[in-house]
Write a structure and sequence with these properties.
single chain; Immunoglobulin-like; Beta-galactosidase, Chain A, domain 5; 2 domains; six-stranded mixed beta sheet
Length: about 425
């Protein structure tokens, strides 16, 4: 299966972008796609000149439809936009990029810096909060359970809160987060997950960037995995760059969120992430409302909650009862083909968890079956995408969203005059 994002730039030199329009096709490839983020490489375009005047439109029968777009400068500059709606396999869609007088941008995803949180929202409806200030446990509970650097709450488009933190059965659970459990630094074991052990924790260190735009808004945060048992002062065992962005899918009927984590160990010996049923990638403690009788799990390999634990999957759909008009809400967790041990193993709590109530916990766990050594100074990246929704979501629809993530379309620039 093709797993890389290919962009064809072989038809025209683009240094004259300021003088002429640029037309291009977006090819769906061999898969049906839904609400797919797409990027156009701008390395050959003088994009620094009059940035605010770039306009993108889709050419359709009977005219043009304006499409929100957003520049992302950097080592390789990109222009991002959403391929709206469904794009059937084997089809292509045509777009045109122009220079125009500066025009007001469309409403996108808003980013707000609050007291201890960064909030992403759409049309005044909250999507998620990222907690960068330390959150302490309830009064009377051991303060070792404190931590920062996690997502909570995560809301559905209809306003249902889908995450939970500090449940009495596991005070160290924090909404959506990804600490490592069984690790070794040399011969010494360090647990960054079970906070009560006092061996380690994860904490927010600082923001590297925050961006707000018509197509996506988000942030990059540095999180430190702290080893409490080091000789002398506490030491940073892993530096983690957490990149979170929420895409503007336009209609606000679903939230589409990318969660990308890059790990780098500064230790001379590196760090061993031991094979274990917990640890890593992305973990999710579901709302207190969900239990075995009103929630469900479905994986890309057609496993339900009874059979999913320890198996591998491209995606996992978790959903349950809600107070929205649709009566159900959920999250589709998607793993990328570039991730370690893809399709990734999962940890899914059994139905008899917590005294038979069957509370719901899910995790993509790339070290479930095999150790993973992080060598000093090397970057290791895990990419995930979340689709947050209300109402039903079929396996067929889930597959289309995953294909858009793992196998994005090809962009073909057209010759001048075509």
């Amino acid at each position: 299966m093709k797993t890389t994002f290919s962009i064809c730039l072989c038809f025209i030199a683009l240094t004259g972008f300021a003088q002429e329009d640029i037309r291009f096709y977006v090819h769906a490839g061999e898969s049906d796609l839904l609400d797919c983020p797409v990027s156009l490489n701008l390395d050959q375009i003088n994009y620094n000149e009059d940035r605010g005047s770039i306009q993108l439109a889709e050419l359709v029968a009977g005219g043009e439809v304006e499409v929100p777009c957003q520049l992302e400068p950097g080592h390789s500059a990109k222009l991002w936009f959403i391929l709206p709606g469904e794009t059937p396999k084997g089809t292509k869609r045509e777009f045109i990029l122009r220079r125009r007088e500066t025009i007001p941008g469309p409403d996108g995803v808003q980013l707000e810096l609050r007291q201890g949180q960064v909030r992403l929202s759409k049309m005044e409806r909250p999507i998620l909060d990222y907690q960068f200030q330390t959150v302490f446990p309830p009064e009377g509970i051991n303060p070792l359970f404190q931590r920062s650097g996690f997502i909570h709450p995560l809301w559905s488009p209809g306003g249902e809160m889908l995450t939970r933190i500090q449940p009495p059965d596991h005070y160290h659970h924090y909404g959506i987060w990804g600490p490592w459990t069984l690790t070794h630094i040399g011969d010494r074991e360090v647990d960054f997950w079970n906070l009560l052990k006092g061996e380690g924790t994860v904490r927010f260190s600082g923001f590297l960037s925050q961006v707000e735009g018509a197509v996506f808004s988000g942030f990059k945060a540095l999180q430190e995995h702290i080893d409490f048992g080091a000789r002398g002062a506490d030491q940073v065992a892993i530096n983690e760059l957490l990149d979170v962005r929420a895409w503007n899918t336009g209609n606000g009927e679903v939230w589409l969120i990318d969660y990308t984590t890059t790990l780098n160990s500064p230790l001379d010996s590196g760090i061993m992430l031991d094979a274990y049923r917990y640890g890593g990638g992305i973990g999710y403690r579901a709302t207190e409302r969900w239990h075995k009788d009103n929630s469900s799990v479905l994986t890309s390999e057609n496993k339900d909650r009874k059979g999913a634990d320890g198996t591998k999957a491209k995606w996992c759909l978790v959903e349950g009862e809600s107070s929205t008009p649709e009566g159900r809400s959920g999250i589709l967790f998607m793993g990328h083909t570039s991730n370690r041990d893809f399709p990734e193993p999962m940890r899914v709590w059994p139905e008899d968890q917590n005294g038979g109530r069957g509370d719901l916990y899910f995790e993509f766990c790339p070290i479930r079956h095999n150790d993973w050594k992080l060598e000093k100074g090397k970057d290791y990246t895990l990419r995930y995408r979340l689709l947050v929704f209300d109402g039903p979501l079929t396996a067929e629809t889930a597959e289309k969203y995953w294909q858009a993530f793992a196998n994005p379309p090809r962009v073909e620039l057209l010759k001048s005059g075509n």
